[in-house]
Amino acid sequence: MKQKKAVVGIGTLIIFVATIVVSMIAAGVLIQSTGLLQERALNVEESARERLTAGVEAFNVYAVGNTSTERITGLEFNVRLRSGSGPVQLQTVGLSVDSPRGNIAANLNSSKSNEDCTFDNLIPNEEFCYINRFGGEGSIIQPGDLFIIRIAFNETTQLPTFTNFDVIFTPRTGGIESLQLRTPELVLLNRIRLR
């Protein structure tokens, strides 16, 4: 009888130790899984923050007009990085203008920069150029840099007076800069501030 109780006691002890070992393994798996999930959550959060803050901000917009035809022949933007954004390569930014006169999707012509960035040098509706006003060299906008971006319109897409239109800067990664603008009622000057 004592041997039977001892065997039952040892069996119970083995089951008890096995339960503790299984619990420890399960706890280890849970702790490791929690660590992996936390790491992934931090990566997703960092990626989401970069997507929201990265990009350019157009803080001044000028219309370039023809006073005799009272049409807007081009646009000029003062552009900087959004607050908290890392550097942005202008070659990865698309510029589109949506108006009742048509939709334009332009790409950067990096060969026309600084002194060569004039409205006369641009192919209307197809390309835009930049002037690096304050900052480093090249077409990479760094924190603290100020760039001027110019785009020209052809005769069919030139904007008449008192016309609503949208301008959208679309970087490869990051937030989209969308501007809702209106041309002035009169084109009295060759350069008119819209925003």
Keywords for this structure?
Immunoglobulin-like, two-stranded antiparallel sheet, 1 helix, 10-stranded mixed beta sheet, 12 strands, rod-shaped, 195 residues, alpha+beta
Task: Provide a short characterization of the protein structure.
The chain is of the alpha+beta class and 195 residues long. The chain has one helix and twelve strands, in the order αββββββββββββ. Strands 1, 2, 4, 5, 6, 8, 9, 10, 11 and 12 form a ten-stranded mixed β-sheet that branches. Strands 3-7 form a two-stranded antiparallel ribbon.
Would you tell me the structural class of the helices and strands? alpha+beta
At the fold tier of CATH, the topology name of the largest domain is Immunoglobulin-like
Mean pLDDT: 87
Give the number of domains.
2
Number of strands: 12
What proportion of the residues is helical, as a percent range?
Answer: 25-40%
The best one-word shape is: rod-shaped
Just name the CATH architecture of the largest domain.
Sandwich
Q: Cα distance, first to last residue? A: 98 Å
Q: Which regions contain 5 or more consecutive residues with pLDDT less than 50?
A: none
